[in-house]
Amino acid sequence: MNDYYERLTSLLMEKNSKLSYGRARTWVELLWEDFETTYAKAGREYQGKAVAEKVVRTWVAQYGDKLHDFAALNPKYAHMLNDEEDILH
């Protein structure tokens, strides 16, 4: 599982230089979890990690450069950018 997260985190960091590694990894994990939860709630049969990776990869490609803006405007996710001690890589 860690390999999937690492690949997606690297991709997100390429798309959005404003995110630290920790923030990018958290976003990847949240997006992955959101996809799996939504898929399950819809009553669909689990298609495996490869499908989840493909969906999250698509989301990162489309929205990755804007995630920091989304978080800043949405109080539910504002804490995603509050930590000024994050190290940018």
Automatic annotation (TrEMBL):
It comes from the Bacteria. It holds the Pfam family WVELL. This is WVELL protein. It comes from Siminovitchia terrae.
